[in-house]
Amino acid sequence: MTNFLQWLSTLPTLAQIPIIIGVFCAVVLLLLFLIELAPRRGRRFTIIRAVACVLFPLLMVAILDSYTWAIVAAGFLGLLLFWLDYRSRHGAGYIFALVGFLSPALLLLAAGLVIPTIQTTVQSFMNSRGTEFVGLENFIWIFTQPAGIRTVLNTILWVLIAPAVSTIAGLAYAVFIDKSRGEKFFKILVFMPMAISFVGASIIWRFVYTARPADSEQIGLLNQVIVWAGGEPVQFLQESPWNTVALIAVLIWVQTGFAMVILSAAIKAVPLEQLEAAELDGANGWQRFANVTLPGIRSSLVVVLTTISIASLKVFDIVRTMTAGANDTSVIANEMYTQFRNFEAGRSAAFAVILFLMVMPIVIYNARQIKMQREMR
Amino acid sequence: MSTLARTEEAPAATDPGVRRGRPAASLAKTRLTNRWATLAALLIAALWTVPTIGLLVSSFRPAQQVRTTGWWTLFQNWGFTTDNYAAVLQAGNSQLTMAGSFINSIAITLPATVIPLVLATMAAYAFAWMRFPGKDLLFVLVFALQIVPIQMALVPLLRLFAAGELFGVPVIGAFGQAGYAQVWIAHTIFALPLAIFLLHNFIAEIPNEIIEAARVDGASHGQIFFRIVLPLTAPAIAAFSIFQFLWVWNDLLVALIFADGAVAPITKLLAEITGSRGQDWHLLTAGAFVAMIVPLAVFFALQRYFVRGLMAGSAKG
Question: Which of A236, A251, B153, B212 could disulfide-link to A209, CB 3.0 to 4.6 Å?
Answer without folding.
Answer: A236
